[in-house]
Write a structure and sequence with these properties.
By secondary structure, the chain is an alpha/beta fold. Helix content is 42%, strand content 14%. It has two domains: 6-54, Helicase, Ruva Protein, domain 3, CATH 1.10.8.420; 64-203, Dna Topoisomerase Vi A Subunit, Chain: A, domain 2 (3-Layer(aba) Sandwich), CATH 3.40.1360.
Length: 204
C-alpha cells in the first residue's frame, strides 16, 4: 500500500538509484525537496540538466570540462608542470588531488580500470589517449608519469599494464606511495595522506 503521493514516491525512487543513497536517505532528500521553495527546486533542476548539456571531456586529459573550454583549464594553464602527468581512474580523483594544493602537474583520466570479470579491457578505458600524449611527436617535455590508481586488484592490474606500455618510451613511471589502505578509494582519502602519497611516489 502506498502511504504518500505518486510524485514523492517517484522522486524517492530516483534518489535511491544514486550511489551510496539508501531508501531512508532518499526519503529524507525527497521530503527536503518537498519543503524547499519552488525557486530553489528549479535551481537544482536546472543544475542537473546543465550537467548533461554543458559538460564534456577534455580532448587532451579526458577530465571533465565545460563545453567551449577544450582543452580544459588545467591543460592550458601556464603555471602547471608539463613534465609530469598523473594518471587517475576518474574525475573525482582529480578533485581530490587538487584539494591538497600540492600536485602541480598535468592529469590523465582513464574513466575506468581494466577488469576482465566485468568485461572491461584496455580498449574500454582511455589508455590509447594517454599513449597519444606520450608519443615522440607530442610528448615534448613529459618526463614522468605517476600512476595514482585505487589500490584494488583492478587498479593494480591497470597500473602494471600501463607501466609495461610506457617503459619502452623512456619515460619515468612512478606510483604514489602506499600510505593508502588497500581497497580504499582515493576520493575519500584525507588531503594530508594524499599529499604524502604523492611526495613518496616510487618507481614502477
Amino acid at each position: 500500500m502506498r502511504y504518500t503521493s505518486g510524485a514523492v514516491e517517484a522522486l524517492i525512487e530516483e534518489f535511491s538509484k544514486l550511489p551510496g543513497i539508501g531508501r531512508k536517505t532518499a526519503q529524507r532528500l525527497a521530503m527536503h525537496i518537498l519543503q524547499e521553495r519552488r525557486a530553489e527546486v528549479e535551481k537544482l533542476a536546472t543544475a542537473l540538466v546543465d550537467v548533461k548539456e554543458k559538460v564534456t571531456r577534455c580532448s587532451v586529459c579526458q577530465n571533465i570540462t565545460d563545453l567551449g573550454t577544450d582543452p580544459c583549464l588545467v591543460c592550458t594553464s601556464t603555471g602547471r608542470d608539463r613534465t609530469v602527468i598523473c594518471v587517475v581512474e576518474s574525475p573525482t580523483e582529480v578533485l581530490a588531488f587538487e584539494k591538497t594544493g600540492h600536485y602541480k602537474g598535468q592529469y590523465h583520466v582513464l574513466h575506468g580500470v581494466i577488469s576482465p570479470l566485468d568485461g572491461v579491457g584496455p580498449d574500454d578505458i582511455k589508455v590509447r589517449e594517454l599513449l597519444l600524449r606520450l608519443n615522440p611527436d607530442s610528448a615534448g617535455e613529459v618526463r614522468e608519469v605517476v600512476l595514482a590508481l585505487n589500490p584494488t586488484v583492478e587498479g593494480e592490474t591497470t597500473s602494471l599494464y600501463i607501466s609495461k606500455l610506457l617503459k619502452p618510451l623512456g619515460i619515468n613511471v612512478t606510483r604514489i606511495a602506499r600510505g593508502i589502505p588497500v581497497g580504499a578509494e582515493l576520493e575519500f582519502i584525507d588531503e594530508a595522506t594524499l599529499s604524502r602519497a604523492m611526495e613518496g611516489r616510487s618507481a614502477m
